[in-house]
Design a protein that fits this description.
The chain has 270 residues and is α+β, with helices and mostly antiparallel strands. The chain contains seven helices and 17 strands.
Length: 270
């Protein structure tokens, strides 16, 4: 199973504050309702290719998922997990269990949209306490209930290109992904902030092992998992709509980060 990204949750202590940051950066998230069983609520930034960023915040003091990220948010903690769509959560759980991967689930998820539509799905979280491996989802109701049409058609941003995953052990993480998903040998690169980088050709993930700085601090605080999301974009067009800063190149592609989102969101050239 190739891990194609369905969506990436972004954690915040307050949903309105997170939405305001995205709006200031030129995006327009749409409120999607509360998860009554999980103790969270969300807004979605749906991208033209159907992937999306789920902006999520707690509605009670003991949310079921990502409490460490909510506690760390000031007010934004950035990406707190990443999700892969599968035809059957139950079948994918069995497949990864056969590869000695810890599984939490399947779990029935639901939320009611502001228009009253009930959205339901199954999900399972892979790999234990960290979020280096994704969680998986399959829809019980039509996917368009969960993921409405994007309002970004015509935008220079087209979808999620890479989720950047931080790890203490790059070699071990590469081997783990290769074993679980039968991925090829990765390309290698280096960045002063993210450290050693590994990217599997044609895949949606970049692994990094930072030596110091903010990415290292985040890894020490929250453990292995996503640290940034890079959206596919025509960068020359995107800089006219979104505040982009920095200038770097990874694996021969231009990378810029969105100002005001603390390095958690960026764009990468098509």
């Amino acid at each position: 199973m190739r891990p194609v990204i369905d969506h990436v949750p972004f954690a915040a202590s307050d949903l309105d504050a997170l939405v305001e940051r995205f709006e200031a950066a030129g995006f327009d998230p749409t409120y999607g309702g509360a998860h009554p069983d999980a103790g969270t609520e969300m807004a979605a930034l749906v991208l033209p290719d159907g992937s999306y960023l789920e902006l999520v915040a707690p509605t009670r003091g003991d949310p079921d998922r990502w409490p460490a990220y909510f506690d760390a948010a000031d007010p934004v903690a950035g990406p707190c997990d990443w999700c892969v769509e599968t035809g059957s959560v139950h079948a994918e759980c069995q497949r990864v269990i056969d590869h000695d991967v810890t599984v939490h689930g399947p779990i029935h998820g639901r939320r009611e949209r502001p228009d009253g539509t009930l959205v339901e799905w199954d999900q399972a979280f892979l790999g234990g306490d960290d979020t280096l491996l994704p969680f998986v989802v399959s829809d019980r109701t039509p996917r368009e209930y969960r993921v409405p049409d994007s309002n970004l058609y015509g935008s220079p941003v087209s979808g999620i290109s890479w989720v950047v995953l931080a790890t203490d052990d790059l070699a071990g993480a590469v081997e783990r992904f290769q074993r679980l998903y039968r991925l090829p040998e990765p390309e290698r690169d280096y960045d002063d902030t993210y450290g050693d980088l590994a990217h599997f050709p044609g895949q949606d993930i970049v692994l990094c092992e930072p030596a110091g700085g903010r990415v290292r601090d985040r890894l020490d605080q929250l453990g292995p998992g996503p640290v940034s999301v890079l959206l596919s974009a025509d960068i020359d067009d995107a800089r006219h709509r979104h505040p982009l800063d920095g200038g770097r190149e990874w694996f021969g592609r231009r990378v810029r980060f969105v100002d005001g989102l603390d390095g958690h969101l960026g764009v990468v050239s098509l």
